[in-house]
Task: structure prediction
Amino acid sequence: MGKKSVHAEARGTRRRFTTKTKGMLGGRAEAPQVRIGGGAGSSQGLTLALTKITDREWKTFAKEPDGTLRQWAEVDYVPTERYEHKDSRPLRYVGLRLLKAQGVLFADGTDRRHHAVITNLDYSGDRLLNWHREKAGTVEHLHDEIKNALGGGHMPSQRFNVNAAWLKHAILAYNLASAIKELCFVLEERNVRFKKYRLLMVHLAGRMNRNNCVMGLRLCASPAAILRMRKVWSVFKLPTHATSSKPFVHRRR
Result:
């Protein structure tokens, strides 16, 4: 099985976090092939562990436009759960500190805020927090693309099962296109919307021909588009079988 990534919000406890992710992945949330990461929520013990981290241990990895520093540090914290599953693995806590510039305060009057992420990944702190932040606001983009670009906003029938099948096809098309963009497109093209995606992958003129039992495709496209298509074919390999050049004739007995 390939690797899976899960974002989730823990709301305070490790047990709730792993229980939620297990439910999403059929009970395999702590398996090595499943990458999990989510907000660790707030608890008295975790908050105390975050405040005990010294300034020297916090590492700055980004700076926001208003001057707020984004810093990370490993958190020495062991959750106090009532019980543990016998097959559970220890999870890692990574702290995030938002530190305002000198003389600037948050709305509550403090110059810093603490958060934490719980995970089973061995990423560096900055990479982990950036990976976890990627989920922020992306579900709205998904809804917009499915509704407006893939026809998911207009149901074709008054029958529930027909509309459910229609929506499933729209979601399947979105997932396939997302996989192609992530695995086959260059970095600058991975976030294109479906309007641009159609120009890059779908609206390409070509002609199929066969010569000596070999199928060929002639494309009327730019070299960049042809390289993109070849990348898709190399990643998503489709096994084919040799076919006869003679048409099949059914003989009656």
Residues 160-184 form the longest helix (25 residues). The CA atoms of residues 209 and 216 lie 5 Å apart. The beta strands are 4-9, 34-39, 59-63, 69-74, 92-99, 112-119, 205-211, 214-220.
